[in-house]
Specification:
The chain is α/β, with parallel strands linked by helices. It has two domains: 136 residues, Rossmann fold (3-Layer(aba) Sandwich), CATH 3.40.50; 154 residues, Alpha-Beta Plaits (2-Layer Sandwich), CATH 3.30.70.270. Helices cover 47% and strands 22% of the residues. It has ten helices and twelve strands. Helix 1 links the parallel strand 1 and strand 2. The radius of gyration is 29 Å and the shape is elongated. The relative contact order is 0.09.
Length: 316
């Protein structure tokens, strides 16, 4: 997977203007976008700014050697993988081993053969492509592990990870945080009467309406079954209740064509809010929102019930 412009960005590091020019002439017509540094410290600055995918560096330089440069680049684990080629006039096997141990992927002996350099650069491109493909697949797997496959919403794991970060912020800065648990009324009846495919349609529609009514600064997701969860921050009680009631009304106004019938479906909601100091236990808030949900169910369904604490939720 190459950059958008189809070129691989390469940082060439050499204190010799002659060698820099030789490399430039060789690689200019190839699929590379070139950056040049006169010394190791300049190279580090360019590396941190541009994150080139390939670095070709001389070993012997006056300030920071190519060996040290490789070590410094390898210490930075946060960046995508960089392929390192060390150029050296040292031909002893011991020196080559030392360079590879410092983090270099490959080496070239000075004066370099043009064909050999192009071949080794091509190897670097293949390695970079493989690393990018692996990183992309790993990201997709990580996203899948945090996503509910039916609705596309975050799952319980993703919600809890996000909410714990927000709870720390709420404890530190004293802003409010609300946990909303929503449950589709009589969902088992829908599955039993119209089948699980119909139930899936209801769940997906519920998720779509929930997503539409969730601010980008908040999060909504599916806990499992017909139970969903919404976490809202920086909001007053009246505003949260109005938002959830608006969502409840929008969903209740929908009609589902199931087996030739027009079927209306409703949902109930429980809210638990917190504002104050001290790190709070997210599971306590979820449990209280669940209690409020069952109060709404017992009161007749298609309702919202809420509870708000101020420095009263059990701390952890």
């Amino acid at each position: 997977m190459t950059p958008i412009d189809g070129k691989y960005q390469v940082l060439v590091v050499d204190d010799s203007p002659v060698y820099r020019k030789l490399v430039e002439q060789l690689l200019t017509m190839e699929p590379y976008s070139l950056l040049f540094a006169n010394n190791g410290r300049e190279a580090l600055e360019l590396f941190q700014e541009h994150s080139p995918c390939i670095v070709v560096t001389d070993w012997m330089m006056p300030d920071l050697s190519g060996l040290e440069l490789c070590q410094r680049i390898r210490e930075d684990q946060a960046r995508p993988y960089t392929y390192l080629i060390l150029m050296t006039s040292k031909k002893e096997k011991e020196s080559v081993v030392k360079g590879l141990q410092a983090g270099a992927d490959d080496y070239l002996t000075k004066p370099f053969d043009p064909g050999e350099m192009l071949a080794r650069m091509a190897v670097g491109r293949r390695i970079i492509d493989l690393n990018r493909e692996l990183a992309a697949k790993s990201l997709k797997l990580e996203e899948a592990a945090r996503t509910d496959p039916l609705t596309g919403l975050p799952n319980r794991r993703a919600i809890e990870e996000w909410a714990l970060r927000q709870l720390r912020g709420a404890a530190r800065h004293g802003f409010s945080l609300w946990v909303v648990v929503g449950d589709i009324d009589n969902f088992k009846v829908i599955n039993d009467s119209f089948g699980h495919d119909a139930g899936d349609i209801v769940l997906q529609t519920f998720a779509a309406v929930l997503r539409k009514n969730t601010r980008s600064s908040d999060i909504c997701g599916r806990l499992g079954g017909d139970e969903f969860l919404l976490v809202i921050t920086h909001a007053e009680a009246a505003g949260v209740e109005a938002t959830v009631n608006r969502f409840r009304e929008q969903f209740a106004a929908l009609s589902f064509p199931l087996q030739g019938q027009s079927v209306g479906v409703t949902a109930s909601f429980g809210l638990a809010g917190f504002s104050g100091n001290g790190l709070q236990d997210f599971t306590v808030l979820v449990r209280k929102a669940d209690q409020m949900l069952y109060e709404a169910k017992r009161a007749g369904k298609n309702l919202v019930r809420s509870s708000f604490f101020e420095d009263k939720v059990q701390t952890v």
